[in-house]
Amino acid sequence: MWTSWTRRKPAARRLTNSPSSNSSVTSSSKDHSGISSVLDDAAAPPAGGGKVVLHRVRSSTKLRTCKSFAAAEEAAAAPVAAERRVVLYFTSLRAVRPTFEACRDVRAILRGLRVGVDERDVSMDAAFLTELRVLMRRDRPPLPQLFVGGRLVGDADDVRALHESGELRRVVAGAPQLPPTPCASCGGSRFGPCVACGGSHRWFSEKTGGFRVCSACNENGLVRCTACCSGG
Asked: What is the pLDDT along the chain (232 residues), one digit of tens a residue?
């Protein structure tokens, strides 16, 4: 009545690749293809069929964190993934000195390359921090973070390394150039006081007889400049 399980011979083990290992290899190859695309988009092969030699291959490994955005992140990635757009998430607050200096250095490097940058100061608008959290899939992402053409380039250390090796210019090639003069509307600050509430983030409702939160501006009573930030 009782089957003796002790007499059963152990099944022969088969040497097969596990799905997890296959997926890891596949994802790794995708990451490397994404890294190559960042460097190769700016340097297409010549028409004569000549070979393109990529120098300083070792420094290009700084782009290992470069990933395409998932479909679930399209809402947050859409303003970032415009063609060859350079987007920098940073902070202008001096509360944490190393972070402030890292952000300042990256901004100076990009300005030295005369690249037009969509600068998103998380201290000016909390919505930028929310965007970055979704894109990085981290609750407290480090600052600054640079994106080019919808792909993550990296933090301050990555940008410095690419700049020192000369590859950062290739990464941002094809991006809009820095305007010769600051924006006449906002003076380069990219923000202005809300016209609807006068920058108070509150407005008086005659219907309710009280103040309501203004939905046209952020928590600081500011709106993005429509003249220099029309792209999103």
From this structure: 445 544 555 554 444 444 444 444 444 444 444 444 444 444 444 455 544 444 443 444 444 444 444 443 554 555 554 567 899 999 999 999 999 999 999 999 999 999 999 999 999 999 999 999 999 999 999 999 999 998 999 999 999 999 999 999 999 999 988 888 888 888 888 898 998 898 888 888 888 888 889 989 999 999 988 887 754 4
- Give me Rg for the CA atoms of the chain: 24
Looking at the domain assignment, is residue 141 inside a domain? yes
Q: Both 147 and 198 in a single domain?
A: no
Whether 8 is covered by a domain: the verdict is: no
Q: Any idea how long the chain is?
A: 232
DSSP tag of 119? E
The verdict on residue 51 lying in a domain is: no
Distance, in Å, from the CA atom of 202 to the CA atom of 75, rounded to the nearest integer, reads 27
Based on the fold, state whether residues 78 and 170 are members of the same structural domain.
yes
| Overall number of domains in the chain | 2
230: which strand partners?
none
CATH of the domain at 149: 3.40.30.10
Do 67 and 172 lie in one domain? The reply is: yes
